[in-house]
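Usage

Read records sequentially. Each one opens with the input sequence:
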Amino acid sequence: MDKWEEHFKGVLNLENETQAFPAINTTPDGNIIQVTPEEVRATVNQSKVKRAPGPDGIHTEHLKETQEMLLPFWTNLFNVCLRSGTIPEKWRRSSVNILYKGKGQTNDPNSYRCIALENNILKIFMKILTKKLQDSECPEGVVHEDSFKDIYAKFFPHGNSSLYAHYVFKAFDVNSNGAISFRDLLVTLSTLLRGSIYEKLRWTFKLYDINGDGCITRSELGEIVVAIHELMGRRAHQVEDDRKAREQVDRVFKKLDLNQDGVITIEEFIESCLKDEVITKSLQVLDSGTGL
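and closes with the structure output:
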């Protein structure tokens, strides 16, 4: 039983302490963002039926049959969520089903996968927001590096985000073709926001492994640290700042390179990070927007 408990602690999301996201009121060009009844109706009508509901027990069929009566209510609720930067507490919950993969020993927890069933009304809201995001930031269905850097610059206006955004873009660019499809963008963001600690650590390792050879060198770690310092507004090529950056790189690299062979493997990276309480907690609440 202990084996099962330990396994699912790693693959299931832990309680997220973050209570709200930044309130969204306008687009970059100043237009007011709001959900319209037409958007809600279209999204409800396009939703698939005969799917298991989330914890609230509301099926898609219920939403379709009652939409004319409840359409104004849902529209107003979605807009309140946008203006306030929060969602109803019950929407944060999901029902988790554990399914056998169809192969492997039935007494081995690795032979099972988890499916989280979310409330359907939350799915409607997220589909509407996703379409708005795609229409405004990704109208062609792909994001190129220059556009990606522009988006990053909006979140870090007081620093130079270009270098760090370059490395993040490379980690997002799963096909290494200089473009991120909107789908790949959402999949990666979903992993970072809602994936297990192991999934987040694997992605972070990919970010630090700049040349993609399966290990992190001291030089690669140093490049990411410099990019993070610039992102946070610290000046490059300043003697004192450069000294502190080198000391940070030496300290972190020594901690992660468990066998002291001069490179950090993904196994060493995950093991070291899981032993660090600060890193583990930051991953649980996604307080890692600027890297580890």
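Summary fields computed downstream for this record:
- The radius of gyration is 22 Å.
- The longest helix spans residues 60-84.
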